[in-house]
Amino acid sequence: TASEASPQSLPHTPTTPTAPITPVTQGPSVITTASMHNVGPIRRRYSDKYNVPISSADIAQNQEFYKNAEVRPPFTYASLIRQAILESPEKQLTLNEIYNWFTRMFAYFRRNAATWKNAV
After folding, report:
1. Within a domain: residue 66?
2. Distance CA 25, CA 22 (A)
3. Which stretches make up the Fork-head domain (predicted)?
4. Number of domains in the chain
5. 63 within some domain
């Protein structure tokens, strides 16, 4: 119908780039104590604050249990990844080495690979 707008009758806006309305200001590239004064208190995990590995007591204490029982361990992926890296001689691991550590240390991860690999 004549009352409907066709693509040819719609107004066209230019496609050339224009300057931003508000200039972008470059903030500090490094976070420093001075740049964080407005952030507020930061909470850290005890293990992060004091660089205490989680497995010293938690994983090692129940190591045989986790290796054999298909029970999901009560640790975050981040803490498990951290522990795997801390246990490696070079203190660095490839993603595949992290996967291998997960499956070597926990029976749960041997059976349920599809559910956890993307999260890691």
Report:
1. yes
2. 9
3. 72-120
4. 1
5. yes
Domain containing 87 — which CATH number?
A: 1.10.10.10
Phi-psi category of residue 119: left, alpha or beta, with phi > 0 → left and psi -120 to 50 → alpha? alpha
Of residues 44 and 98, the one with the higher pLDDT is: 98
Owner of token pair 């993603």: 95
**Residue at 88 is within a domain:** yes
23, part of any domain: no
Give residue for tokens 């298909």: 70
C-alpha dihedral (117, 92, 64, 80), degrees to nearest 10: -50
> Among 111, 117, 114, which residue's Cα sits nearest to residue 99?
117
Q: Check: CB of residue 102 under 8 Å from CB of residue 116.
A: yes
CA gyration radius for the chain? Answer: 26
Instruction: Return the structure tokens found at 108.
Output: 């749960």
> What is Dmax (Cα atoms) for the chain?
79
Over residues 48-91, the pLDDT tens digits come to 454 555 545 666 778 888 888 889 988 899 999 999 999 999 99
- Measuring CA to CA, which residue among 90, 87, 71 is closest to residue 79? 87
